[in-house]
């Protein structure tokens, strides 16, 4: 589950009238500098809103073990990880490119097709992430030998 899905799941319990203020309070949780601060913010938000929207914050408490690893990454990296839009877009592009091909003669032809599709798709990506050099350096340290 991504953080975006967690937020959407939470906001479905909130009325339209209070959604903007509630979302602002939620943002204090996932933008906290570390796990402890995020947990403390979650408790504060829960306490503030539990009378009005009792079901809204239950999933944060029950899923905290899944959410807390998010805090071990830097703020810059968390902004990229916040959502799965990039991956979903890539998978959608793969489906669109290969929708007419239902059978591949072998594994090698499938791999070549995916490789060529990836080259074609990524050639259209022109926007760079802010502080990409810093982010790439952090990833190389955290995942040494894998990047």
TrEMBL record:
Q: Write down the InterPro entries for this protein, in alphabetical order.
A: Transposase_mutator
Asked if the record carries the keyword DNA-binding, the reply is: yes
Task: Provide one Gene Ontology biological process annotation.
Answer: DNA transposition
* Molecular function via GO: DNA binding; transposase activity
Q: Which UniProt keywords apply?
A: DNA recombination, DNA-binding, Transposable element, Transposition
Query: According to its UniProt record, which protein family does this protein belong to?
Result: Belongs to the transposase mutator family.
Q: What does this protein do?
A: Required for the transposition of the insertion element.
What's the protein called, per UniProt?
Mutator family transposase
Please name the taxonomic classification of the source. Answer: Bacteria, Bacillati, Bacillota, Clostridia, Eubacteriales
């Amino acid at each position: 589950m991504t953080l975006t899905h967690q937020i959407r799941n939470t906001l479905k319990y909130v009325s339209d009238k209070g959604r903007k203020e509630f979302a602002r309070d939620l943002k204090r949780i996932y933008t906290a500098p570390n796990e402890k601060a995020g947990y403390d913010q979650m408790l504060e938000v829960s306490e503030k809103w539990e009378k009005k929207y009792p079901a809204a914050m239950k999933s944060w408490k029950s899923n905290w073990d899944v959410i807390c690893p998010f805090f071990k990454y830097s703020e810059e990296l968390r902004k990229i990880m916040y959502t799965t839009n990039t991956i979903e877009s890539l998978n959608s592009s793969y489906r669109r490119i290969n929708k007419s091909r239902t059978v591949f003669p072998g594994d090698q032809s499938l791999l070549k097709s995916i490789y060529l599709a990836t080259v074609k798709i990524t050639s259209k990506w022109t926007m760079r992430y802010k502080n990409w050099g810093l982010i790439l350096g952090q990833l190389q340290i955290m995942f040494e030998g894998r990047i």
